Amino acid sequence: MADAPTEPTAEEIAAEQNEISEQKAVRLAKRERLIAAAADLGGGAYPVSVPVTTTIPELRARFGDLEPDTATGEIVGIAGRIMYLRNTGKLCFATLQAGDGSRIQAMVSLAEVGEESLAEWKDLVDLGDHVFVHGEVIASRRGELSIMADSWQIASKTLLPMPNLHNDLSEENRVRSRYLDLIAREQARTNVIARAKAVASLRRTFDELGFIEVETPMLQVMHGGASARPFVTHSNAFDTELFLRIAPELYLKRAVVGGIDHVFEINRNFRNEGADSTHSPEFAMLEAYQGYGDYNSIADLTQKLIQDAATSIAGGHVVTWADGTEFDLGGQWDRISMYDSLNAAAGTSFTPETPLAELKALAEREGIEIDHPIHGKYVEELWEHFVKGGLVRPTFVMDFPVDTSPLVRGHRSIAGVVEKWDLYIRGFELATGYSELVDPVIQRERFVEQATLAAGGDPEAMRLDEEFLRALEFGMPPTGGMGMGIDRLLMALTGLGIRETILFPLVK
Protein backbone atom coordinates (compact mmCIF):
# COMPACT_ATOMS: atom_id res chain seq x y z
CA MET A 1 0.00 0.00 0.00
CA ALA A 2 1.32 3.45 -0.90
CA ASP A 3 2.16 5.76 1.95
CA ALA A 4 -0.37 8.49 2.65
CA PRO A 5 0.80 11.97 1.59
CA THR A 6 2.39 13.92 4.41
CA GLU A 7 1.71 17.53 5.28
CA PRO A 8 4.54 19.91 4.35
CA THR A 9 6.66 21.13 7.22
CA ALA A 10 6.92 24.78 8.20
CA GLU A 11 10.39 24.89 6.64
CA GLU A 12 9.10 23.46 3.36
CA ILE A 13 6.25 25.95 3.26
CA ALA A 14 8.63 28.83 3.94
CA ALA A 15 11.01 27.63 1.22
CA GLU A 16 8.16 27.38 -1.27
CA GLN A 17 6.93 30.88 -0.41
CA ASN A 18 10.44 32.27 -0.83
CA GLU A 19 10.73 30.62 -4.23
CA ILE A 20 7.39 32.05 -5.31
CA SER A 21 8.43 35.50 -4.12
CA GLU A 22 11.65 35.26 -6.11
CA GLN A 23 9.83 34.14 -9.24
CA LYS A 24 7.30 36.93 -8.84
CA ALA A 25 10.11 39.47 -8.59
CA VAL A 26 11.61 38.13 -11.84
CA ARG A 27 8.26 38.34 -13.59
CA LEU A 28 7.62 41.85 -12.28
CA ALA A 29 10.93 42.90 -13.83
CA LYS A 30 9.83 41.39 -17.15
CA ARG A 31 6.56 43.29 -16.86
CA GLU A 32 8.51 46.53 -16.49
CA ARG A 33 10.61 45.73 -19.57
CA LEU A 34 7.48 44.94 -21.57
CA ILE A 35 5.89 48.24 -20.57
CA ALA A 36 9.07 50.14 -21.38
CA ALA A 37 9.26 48.52 -24.80
CA ALA A 38 5.52 48.75 -25.51
CA ALA A 39 5.97 50.57 -28.78
CA ASP A 40 8.22 47.82 -30.14
CA LEU A 41 6.43 44.81 -28.65
CA GLY A 42 2.89 45.81 -29.55
CA GLY A 43 1.19 46.90 -26.35
CA GLY A 44 3.39 45.99 -23.41
CA ALA A 45 2.38 43.53 -20.70
CA TYR A 46 -1.38 44.05 -20.89
CA PRO A 47 -2.57 45.25 -24.31
CA VAL A 48 -6.20 46.26 -24.65
CA SER A 49 -6.67 43.71 -27.44
CA VAL A 50 -4.78 41.39 -29.79
CA PRO A 51 -5.77 40.65 -33.42
CA VAL A 52 -7.21 37.16 -32.97
CA THR A 53 -8.72 35.74 -36.17
CA THR A 54 -9.76 32.28 -34.98
CA THR A 55 -9.78 30.07 -31.91
CA ILE A 56 -7.84 26.98 -30.93
CA PRO A 57 -11.00 24.78 -30.88
CA GLU A 58 -11.88 25.95 -34.39
CA LEU A 59 -8.40 25.10 -35.68
CA ARG A 60 -8.49 21.66 -34.09
CA ALA A 61 -11.88 21.01 -35.68
CA ARG A 62 -10.66 22.09 -39.13
CA PHE A 63 -7.12 20.74 -39.17
CA GLY A 64 -7.02 18.00 -36.53
CA ASP A 65 -6.25 15.27 -39.08
CA LEU A 66 -3.28 16.83 -40.86
CA GLU A 67 -0.55 14.46 -41.95
CA PRO A 68 2.87 14.98 -40.32
CA ASP A 69 5.10 17.67 -41.83
CA THR A 70 2.24 19.41 -43.68
CA ALA A 71 1.89 23.13 -44.42
CA THR A 72 -1.63 24.41 -45.06
CA GLY A 73 -0.92 27.91 -46.30
CA GLU A 74 -3.60 29.12 -43.84
CA ILE A 75 -2.46 32.23 -41.93
CA VAL A 76 -4.18 32.84 -38.60
CA GLY A 77 -3.88 34.80 -35.38
CA ILE A 78 -4.61 32.86 -32.18
CA ALA A 79 -4.22 33.40 -28.45
CA GLY A 80 -3.97 31.13 -25.44
CA ARG A 81 -2.28 30.45 -22.12
CA ILE A 82 1.16 28.82 -22.19
CA MET A 83 0.98 25.44 -20.48
CA TYR A 84 4.30 24.06 -21.70
CA LEU A 85 7.42 25.94 -22.78
CA ARG A 86 10.69 24.73 -24.23
CA ASN A 87 13.28 27.23 -25.43
CA THR A 88 16.17 25.59 -27.24
CA GLY A 89 18.53 27.09 -29.77
CA LYS A 90 16.94 28.48 -32.91
CA LEU A 91 13.48 26.94 -32.39
CA CYS A 92 11.21 27.41 -29.37
CA PHE A 93 8.06 25.43 -28.59
CA ALA A 94 5.01 26.40 -26.51
CA THR A 95 1.70 24.67 -25.89
CA LEU A 96 -1.19 27.16 -25.88
CA GLN A 97 -4.44 26.31 -24.09
CA ALA A 98 -7.85 27.80 -24.77
CA GLY A 99 -10.52 28.32 -22.14
CA ASP A 100 -12.19 25.00 -22.96
CA GLY A 101 -8.91 23.14 -22.43
CA SER A 102 -8.13 22.51 -26.11
CA ARG A 103 -4.49 23.01 -27.03
CA ILE A 104 -2.23 23.77 -29.97
CA GLN A 105 1.52 24.02 -30.36
CA ALA A 106 3.21 27.31 -31.22
CA MET A 107 6.66 27.22 -32.86
CA VAL A 108 8.83 30.34 -32.73
CA SER A 109 11.88 30.03 -34.98
CA LEU A 110 14.84 32.21 -35.80
CA ALA A 111 14.11 31.83 -39.51
CA GLU A 112 10.54 33.15 -39.21
CA VAL A 113 10.65 35.84 -36.52
CA GLY A 114 14.28 37.01 -36.61
CA GLU A 115 17.02 37.14 -34.03
CA GLU A 116 15.68 40.04 -31.95
CA SER A 117 12.11 38.68 -31.63
CA LEU A 118 13.38 35.19 -30.77
CA ALA A 119 15.62 36.64 -28.04
CA GLU A 120 12.70 38.64 -26.63
CA TRP A 121 10.56 35.49 -26.56
CA LYS A 122 13.20 33.62 -24.58
CA ASP A 123 13.71 36.55 -22.23
CA LEU A 124 10.15 37.72 -21.58
CA VAL A 125 7.77 34.76 -21.95
CA ASP A 126 6.96 32.45 -19.00
CA LEU A 127 4.70 29.52 -18.25
CA GLY A 128 1.18 30.77 -17.63
CA ASP A 129 1.43 33.85 -19.82
CA HIS A 130 -1.31 34.58 -22.31
CA VAL A 131 0.27 35.11 -25.73
CA PHE A 132 -0.89 35.96 -29.23
CA VAL A 133 0.76 34.14 -32.11
CA HIS A 134 0.40 34.96 -35.82
CA GLY A 135 1.49 32.52 -38.48
CA GLU A 136 0.79 29.51 -40.69
CA VAL A 137 -1.15 26.43 -39.60
CA ILE A 138 1.07 23.36 -40.02
CA ALA A 139 1.59 19.84 -38.73
CA SER A 140 5.04 19.29 -37.24
CA ARG A 141 7.28 16.40 -38.20
CA ARG A 142 5.74 14.47 -35.30
CA GLY A 143 2.23 15.27 -36.50
CA GLU A 144 1.48 17.90 -33.86
CA LEU A 145 -0.97 20.58 -35.03
CA SER A 146 1.01 23.81 -34.77
CA ILE A 147 1.30 27.46 -35.67
CA MET A 148 4.63 28.41 -37.22
CA ALA A 149 4.83 31.94 -35.90
CA ASP A 150 5.93 34.88 -37.99
CA SER A 151 5.15 37.25 -35.09
CA TRP A 152 3.98 37.07 -31.49
CA GLN A 153 2.83 39.33 -28.69
CA ILE A 154 2.21 39.10 -24.95
CA ALA A 155 -1.55 39.22 -24.34
CA SER A 156 -1.33 39.19 -20.52
CA LYS A 157 1.75 38.77 -18.33
CA THR A 158 1.37 36.29 -15.45
CA LEU A 159 3.11 37.43 -12.26
CA LEU A 160 2.76 34.28 -10.16
CA PRO A 161 4.17 30.91 -11.24
CA MET A 162 1.72 28.20 -12.16
CA PRO A 163 1.37 25.44 -9.55
CA ASN A 164 2.47 21.93 -10.30
CA LEU A 165 -0.64 20.96 -12.18
CA HIS A 166 -0.58 17.35 -11.01
CA ASN A 167 0.60 17.53 -7.41
CA ASP A 168 -0.14 20.94 -5.91
CA LEU A 169 -3.92 21.13 -6.34
CA SER A 170 -5.40 19.29 -3.38
CA GLU A 171 -9.18 19.22 -3.05
CA GLU A 172 -9.02 22.15 -0.63
CA ASN A 173 -6.83 24.17 -3.00
CA ARG A 174 -9.14 23.38 -5.90
CA VAL A 175 -12.11 24.77 -4.00
CA ARG A 176 -10.31 27.85 -2.72
CA SER A 177 -8.57 28.65 -6.01
CA ARG A 178 -11.08 27.45 -8.56
CA TYR A 179 -9.46 29.59 -11.24
CA LEU A 180 -6.34 27.43 -10.98
CA ASP A 181 -8.48 24.30 -10.93
CA LEU A 182 -10.13 25.39 -14.19
CA ILE A 183 -6.73 25.97 -15.79
CA ALA A 184 -5.26 22.70 -14.61
CA ARG A 185 -8.00 20.05 -14.61
CA GLU A 186 -10.16 18.94 -17.49
CA GLN A 187 -12.73 17.59 -15.01
CA ALA A 188 -13.19 21.05 -13.49
CA ARG A 189 -13.97 22.53 -16.90
CA THR A 190 -16.21 19.57 -17.73
CA ASN A 191 -18.20 20.20 -14.54
CA VAL A 192 -18.93 23.79 -15.52
CA ILE A 193 -20.03 22.78 -19.01
CA ALA A 194 -22.17 19.93 -17.66
CA ARG A 195 -23.93 22.25 -15.24
CA ALA A 196 -24.65 24.78 -18.00
CA LYS A 197 -26.03 22.04 -20.25
CA ALA A 198 -28.19 20.61 -17.47
CA VAL A 199 -29.73 23.99 -16.58
CA ALA A 200 -30.33 24.78 -20.26
CA SER A 201 -32.02 21.38 -20.60
CA LEU A 202 -34.31 22.08 -17.63
CA ARG A 203 -35.42 25.35 -19.17
CA ARG A 204 -35.89 23.72 -22.58
CA THR A 205 -38.07 20.94 -21.15
CA PHE A 206 -40.19 23.40 -19.20
CA ASP A 207 -40.61 25.58 -22.29
CA GLU A 208 -41.72 22.59 -24.38
CA LEU A 209 -44.34 21.78 -21.72
CA GLY A 210 -45.69 25.34 -21.55
CA PHE A 211 -44.24 26.40 -18.18
CA ILE A 212 -43.42 30.06 -17.51
CA GLU A 213 -40.18 31.05 -15.75
CA VAL A 214 -40.46 33.83 -13.15
CA GLU A 215 -38.31 35.43 -10.46
CA THR A 216 -39.42 35.88 -6.86
CA PRO A 217 -37.89 37.88 -3.99
CA MET A 218 -34.70 36.71 -2.31
CA LEU A 219 -35.10 39.25 0.49
CA GLN A 220 -38.29 38.46 2.33
CA VAL A 221 -40.05 40.00 5.32
CA MET A 222 -41.04 36.50 6.46
CA HIS A 223 -39.25 33.25 5.78
CA GLY A 224 -41.31 30.27 4.70
CA GLY A 225 -41.81 27.53 2.16
CA ALA A 226 -39.55 25.04 3.96
CA SER A 227 -38.47 23.96 7.41
CA ALA A 228 -35.03 25.53 7.74
CA ARG A 229 -33.06 28.08 9.74
CA PRO A 230 -32.81 31.38 7.79
CA PHE A 231 -30.09 33.99 7.43
CA VAL A 232 -31.24 37.27 8.96
CA THR A 233 -30.28 40.76 7.82
CA HIS A 234 -31.50 44.33 8.25
CA SER A 235 -32.79 46.81 5.68
CA ASN A 236 -31.67 50.35 6.42
CA ALA A 237 -34.10 51.76 3.83
CA PHE A 238 -37.13 50.11 5.42
CA ASP A 239 -35.68 49.86 8.96
CA THR A 240 -36.86 46.29 9.25
CA GLU A 241 -35.58 42.76 9.69
CA LEU A 242 -35.36 40.76 6.47
CA PHE A 243 -34.57 37.14 5.68
CA LEU A 244 -32.64 35.61 2.83
CA ARG A 245 -35.14 33.23 1.36
CA ILE A 246 -35.05 29.55 2.24
CA ALA A 247 -37.48 28.71 -0.60
CA PRO A 248 -39.51 30.55 -3.27
CA GLU A 249 -42.59 28.38 -2.67
CA LEU A 250 -45.03 30.83 -1.13
CA TYR A 251 -44.45 33.41 -3.88
CA LEU A 252 -44.68 30.89 -6.71
CA LYS A 253 -48.02 29.72 -5.30
CA ARG A 254 -49.22 33.31 -5.41
CA ALA A 255 -48.41 33.20 -9.14
CA VAL A 256 -50.54 30.05 -9.47
CA VAL A 257 -53.42 31.81 -7.70
CA GLY A 258 -52.99 34.63 -10.21
CA GLY A 259 -53.39 32.27 -13.16
CA ILE A 260 -49.77 31.43 -14.04
CA ASP A 261 -50.53 27.84 -13.18
CA HIS A 262 -47.53 26.22 -14.92
CA VAL A 263 -44.66 28.12 -13.37
CA PHE A 264 -41.04 27.52 -12.37
CA GLU A 265 -37.99 29.33 -11.01
CA ILE A 266 -34.29 28.49 -10.97
CA ASN A 267 -32.46 30.65 -8.46
CA ARG A 268 -30.54 30.80 -5.18
CA ASN A 269 -31.72 29.70 -1.75
CA PHE A 270 -29.96 30.30 1.57
CA ARG A 271 -30.18 28.17 4.71
CA ASN A 272 -28.21 28.95 7.84
CA GLU A 273 -27.37 25.33 8.56
CA GLY A 274 -24.53 22.84 8.38
CA ALA A 275 -22.31 22.19 5.37
CA ASP A 276 -21.23 18.72 4.28
CA SER A 277 -20.87 16.57 1.16
CA THR A 278 -24.53 17.11 0.22
CA HIS A 279 -25.35 20.49 1.85
CA SER A 280 -24.24 24.04 1.19
CA PRO A 281 -25.55 27.18 2.98
CA GLU A 282 -26.08 28.80 -0.44
CA PHE A 283 -27.40 26.63 -3.23
CA ALA A 284 -29.22 26.75 -6.56
CA MET A 285 -32.79 25.50 -6.49
CA LEU A 286 -35.48 24.65 -9.01
CA GLU A 287 -39.11 24.87 -7.94
CA ALA A 288 -42.06 24.22 -10.24
CA TYR A 289 -45.85 24.15 -9.89
CA GLN A 290 -48.24 22.36 -12.22
CA GLY A 291 -51.82 23.53 -12.00
CA TYR A 292 -54.39 20.71 -12.15
CA GLY A 293 -51.64 18.22 -11.38
CA ASP A 294 -50.77 16.22 -8.25
CA TYR A 295 -47.77 14.47 -6.70
CA ASN A 296 -47.96 11.69 -9.26
CA SER A 297 -47.94 13.97 -12.30
CA ILE A 298 -45.17 16.12 -10.80
CA ALA A 299 -43.12 12.94 -10.20
CA ASP A 300 -43.53 12.10 -13.90
CA LEU A 301 -42.36 15.63 -14.76
CA THR A 302 -39.36 15.40 -12.42
CA GLN A 303 -38.25 12.11 -13.94
CA LYS A 304 -38.47 13.63 -17.44
CA LEU A 305 -36.53 16.74 -16.38
CA ILE A 306 -33.67 14.65 -14.97
CA GLN A 307 -33.58 12.19 -17.84
CA ASP A 308 -33.58 15.05 -20.38
CA ALA A 309 -30.72 16.68 -18.46
CA ALA A 310 -28.78 13.40 -18.56
CA THR A 311 -29.31 13.19 -22.31
CA SER A 312 -28.06 16.75 -22.77
CA ILE A 313 -24.78 15.82 -21.05
CA ALA A 314 -24.25 12.16 -21.90
CA GLY A 315 -26.32 11.67 -25.03
CA GLY A 316 -28.58 9.21 -23.22
CA HIS A 317 -29.85 8.11 -19.82
CA VAL A 318 -26.63 6.29 -18.85
CA VAL A 319 -24.21 8.84 -17.39
CA THR A 320 -20.53 8.31 -16.64
CA TRP A 321 -19.38 9.65 -13.30
CA ALA A 322 -16.02 11.26 -12.70
CA ASP A 323 -14.58 7.99 -11.36
CA GLY A 324 -15.58 6.12 -14.51
CA THR A 325 -18.67 4.43 -13.02
CA GLU A 326 -21.67 4.18 -15.34
CA PHE A 327 -25.02 5.00 -13.74
CA ASP A 328 -28.35 4.28 -15.41
CA LEU A 329 -31.06 6.92 -14.99
CA GLY A 330 -33.31 5.33 -17.58
CA GLY A 331 -36.55 3.41 -17.34
CA GLN A 332 -39.49 3.99 -15.02
CA TRP A 333 -38.34 4.78 -11.49
CA ASP A 334 -39.60 2.89 -8.43
CA ARG A 335 -42.16 4.42 -6.08
CA ILE A 336 -42.21 3.05 -2.52
CA SER A 337 -44.17 3.92 0.63
CA MET A 338 -42.24 5.46 3.53
CA TYR A 339 -44.14 3.47 6.17
CA ASP A 340 -44.13 0.20 4.20
CA SER A 341 -40.41 0.37 3.38
CA LEU A 342 -39.55 1.25 7.00
CA ASN A 343 -41.59 -1.66 8.32
CA ALA A 344 -40.02 -4.07 5.82
CA ALA A 345 -36.49 -2.99 6.76
CA ALA A 346 -37.00 -2.72 10.54
CA GLY A 347 -39.40 -5.63 11.06
CA THR A 348 -42.04 -3.32 12.54
CA SER A 349 -45.68 -2.53 11.84
CA PHE A 350 -45.72 1.24 12.33
CA THR A 351 -48.66 3.29 11.11
CA PRO A 352 -49.51 7.00 11.41
CA GLU A 353 -51.38 6.06 14.63
CA THR A 354 -48.39 4.36 16.28
CA PRO A 355 -47.79 5.95 19.72
CA LEU A 356 -44.70 8.13 20.02
CA ALA A 357 -43.40 5.93 22.83
CA GLU A 358 -43.01 2.95 20.47
CA LEU A 359 -41.08 5.05 17.98
CA LYS A 360 -38.86 6.41 20.74
CA ALA A 361 -38.16 2.92 22.03
CA LEU A 362 -36.90 1.75 18.64
CA ALA A 363 -34.82 4.88 18.20
CA GLU A 364 -33.18 4.32 21.58
CA ARG A 365 -32.43 0.66 20.78
CA GLU A 366 -30.79 1.75 17.50
CA GLY A 367 -28.82 4.55 19.16
CA ILE A 368 -30.61 7.29 17.20
CA GLU A 369 -30.82 10.61 19.02
CA ILE A 370 -33.95 12.56 18.06
CA ASP A 371 -34.70 15.80 19.86
CA HIS A 372 -38.22 16.55 18.61
CA PRO A 373 -41.70 16.06 20.09
CA ILE A 374 -43.63 14.87 17.02
CA HIS A 375 -44.40 11.46 15.51
CA GLY A 376 -43.31 12.35 11.98
CA LYS A 377 -39.77 13.32 12.92
CA TYR A 378 -39.23 9.90 14.49
CA VAL A 379 -40.65 8.10 11.47
CA GLU A 380 -38.44 10.05 9.08
CA GLU A 381 -35.29 9.60 11.18
CA LEU A 382 -35.94 5.89 11.58
CA TRP A 383 -36.62 5.57 7.85
CA GLU A 384 -33.29 7.26 7.08
CA HIS A 385 -31.53 4.89 9.48
CA PHE A 386 -33.03 1.68 8.08
CA VAL A 387 -33.79 2.41 4.42
CA LYS A 388 -32.10 5.48 2.98
CA GLY A 389 -28.59 4.09 2.54
CA GLY A 390 -29.82 1.22 0.40
CA LEU A 391 -31.46 3.43 -2.24
CA VAL A 392 -29.05 3.64 -5.15
CA ARG A 393 -31.36 3.48 -8.15
CA PRO A 394 -33.65 6.51 -8.53
CA THR A 395 -36.58 5.97 -6.16
CA PHE A 396 -39.58 8.09 -5.20
CA VAL A 397 -40.33 7.63 -1.48
CA MET A 398 -44.05 8.36 -1.13
CA ASP A 399 -46.56 9.35 1.56
CA PHE A 400 -44.97 11.21 4.50
CA PRO A 401 -46.30 11.85 8.03
CA VAL A 402 -48.67 14.81 8.10
CA ASP A 403 -47.04 16.60 11.02
CA THR A 404 -43.72 17.15 9.18
CA SER A 405 -45.29 18.50 5.98
CA PRO A 406 -47.38 21.62 6.76
CA LEU A 407 -47.75 22.73 3.13
CA VAL A 408 -48.90 19.38 1.71
CA ARG A 409 -52.40 18.07 1.00
CA GLY A 410 -53.59 15.14 3.12
CA HIS A 411 -53.56 11.78 1.39
CA ARG A 412 -56.76 11.06 -0.54
CA SER A 413 -57.14 7.55 0.95
CA ILE A 414 -54.65 7.03 3.82
CA ALA A 415 -55.28 8.87 7.09
CA GLY A 416 -52.36 10.49 8.87
CA VAL A 417 -50.09 10.93 5.84
CA VAL A 418 -49.76 13.49 3.08
CA GLU A 419 -49.24 13.23 -0.65
CA LYS A 420 -45.54 13.99 -0.63
CA TRP A 421 -42.54 12.22 -2.12
CA ASP A 422 -38.79 12.58 -1.84
CA LEU A 423 -36.63 11.41 -4.73
CA TYR A 424 -33.48 9.55 -3.68
CA ILE A 425 -30.55 8.80 -5.98
CA ARG A 426 -27.28 7.27 -4.78
CA GLY A 427 -28.58 7.42 -1.20
CA PHE A 428 -29.15 11.18 -1.08
CA GLU A 429 -32.29 13.25 -1.50
CA LEU A 430 -32.39 14.99 -4.89
CA ALA A 431 -35.91 16.41 -5.07
CA THR A 432 -39.22 16.61 -3.26
CA GLY A 433 -42.77 16.85 -4.59
CA TYR A 434 -46.27 17.47 -3.27
CA SER A 435 -49.93 17.46 -3.98
CA GLU A 436 -50.14 21.03 -2.76
CA LEU A 437 -52.39 22.05 0.12
CA VAL A 438 -54.78 24.61 -1.38
CA ASP A 439 -57.47 24.75 1.33
CA PRO A 440 -56.82 28.06 3.14
CA VAL A 441 -58.63 26.93 6.30
CA ILE A 442 -56.52 23.81 6.75
CA GLN A 443 -53.41 25.75 5.73
CA ARG A 444 -54.08 28.24 8.52
CA GLU A 445 -54.43 25.39 11.01
CA ARG A 446 -51.09 23.96 9.87
CA PHE A 447 -49.42 27.37 10.18
CA VAL A 448 -50.79 27.76 13.70
CA GLU A 449 -49.26 24.38 14.60
CA GLN A 450 -45.94 25.57 13.16
CA ALA A 451 -46.17 28.82 15.10
CA THR A 452 -46.61 26.81 18.28
CA LEU A 453 -43.42 24.87 17.49
CA ALA A 454 -41.60 28.14 16.78
CA ALA A 455 -42.76 29.57 20.11
CA GLY A 456 -41.42 26.42 21.74
CA GLY A 457 -37.95 27.12 20.36
CA ASP A 458 -37.89 25.30 17.01
CA PRO A 459 -35.75 27.58 14.77
CA GLU A 460 -36.86 25.76 11.60
CA ALA A 461 -40.61 26.06 12.13
CA MET A 462 -42.58 28.28 9.74
CA ARG A 463 -44.32 31.47 10.74
CA LEU A 464 -47.96 32.41 10.20
CA ASP A 465 -47.96 34.14 6.80
CA GLU A 466 -51.18 36.15 6.58
CA GLU A 467 -50.46 37.52 3.10
CA PHE A 468 -50.00 34.04 1.69
CA LEU A 469 -53.18 32.83 3.39
CA ARG A 470 -55.07 35.78 1.92
CA ALA A 471 -53.86 34.79 -1.54
CA LEU A 472 -55.08 31.22 -1.01
CA GLU A 473 -58.50 32.56 -0.06
CA PHE A 474 -58.86 33.81 -3.64
CA GLY A 475 -58.65 30.21 -4.82
CA MET A 476 -55.71 28.06 -5.92
CA PRO A 477 -56.46 25.18 -8.30
CA PRO A 478 -55.42 21.58 -7.54
CA THR A 479 -51.65 21.68 -8.03
CA GLY A 480 -48.59 19.46 -8.01
CA GLY A 481 -45.36 21.10 -6.90
CA MET A 482 -41.71 20.06 -6.80
CA GLY A 483 -38.32 21.38 -5.69
CA MET A 484 -34.89 20.12 -6.74
CA GLY A 485 -31.38 21.26 -5.90
CA ILE A 486 -29.39 22.05 -9.05
CA ASP A 487 -26.12 21.25 -7.25
CA ARG A 488 -27.50 17.86 -6.23
CA LEU A 489 -28.73 17.23 -9.77
CA LEU A 490 -25.12 17.63 -10.91
CA MET A 491 -24.03 15.25 -8.13
CA ALA A 492 -26.37 12.62 -9.58
CA LEU A 493 -25.14 13.26 -13.12
CA THR A 494 -21.40 13.41 -12.34
CA GLY A 495 -20.91 11.35 -9.16
CA LEU A 496 -19.12 14.28 -7.49
CA GLY A 497 -19.58 15.92 -4.08
CA ILE A 498 -21.47 19.18 -3.77
CA ARG A 499 -18.35 21.39 -3.51
CA GLU A 500 -17.19 20.12 -6.89
CA THR A 501 -20.51 20.86 -8.57
CA ILE A 502 -20.57 24.49 -7.33
CA LEU A 503 -18.16 26.71 -9.23
CA PHE A 504 -17.30 28.92 -6.24
CA PRO A 505 -18.57 27.27 -3.04
CA LEU A 506 -18.51 29.05 0.29
CA VAL A 507 -15.39 28.13 2.29
CA LYS A 508 -14.04 29.39 5.60
Automatic annotation (TrEMBL):
Top-level taxonomic group: Bacteria
GO CC annotation, single: cytosol
InterPro entries given in the database record: Aa-tRNA-synt_II, aa-tRNA-synth_II, aa-tRNA-synth_II/BPL/LPL, Lys-tRNA-ligase_II, Lys-tRNA-ligase_II_N, Lys-tRNA-synth_II_C, NA-bd_OB-fold, NA-bd_OB_tRNA
EC number: 6.1.1.6
Domain Aminoacyl-transfer RNA synthetases class-II family profile residue range list: 200-505
Cofactor-binding details, from the entry: Binds 3 Mg(2+) ions per subunit.
Protein residues bound to Mg(2+) 1: D422, E429
CDD domains xrefs: LysRS_N
Main localization of the protein described in the UniProt heading: cytoplasm
Entry keywords, A to Z: Aminoacyl-tRNA synthetase, ATP-binding, Cytoplasm, Ligase, Magnesium, Metal-binding, Nucleotide-binding, Protein biosynthesis
Subcellular location: Cytoplasm
Subunit field text: Homodimer.
Protein name as it appears in the record: Lysine--tRNA ligase
Pfam families: tRNA-synt_2, tRNA_anti-codon
Catalysed reactions listed for this entry: tRNA(Lys) + L-lysine + ATP = L-lysyl-tRNA(Lys) + AMP + diphosphate
Record: residues binding Mg(2+) 2: E429
GO molecular function, one term: ATP binding
Leading EC class: ligase
Organism expressing this protein natively: Microterricola viridarii
Gene3D superfamilies, sorted: Bira Bifunctional Protein, Domain 2, Nucleic acid-binding proteins
A GO biological-process term: lysyl-tRNA aminoacylation
Family (UniProt): Belongs to the class-II aminoacyl-tRNA synthetase family.
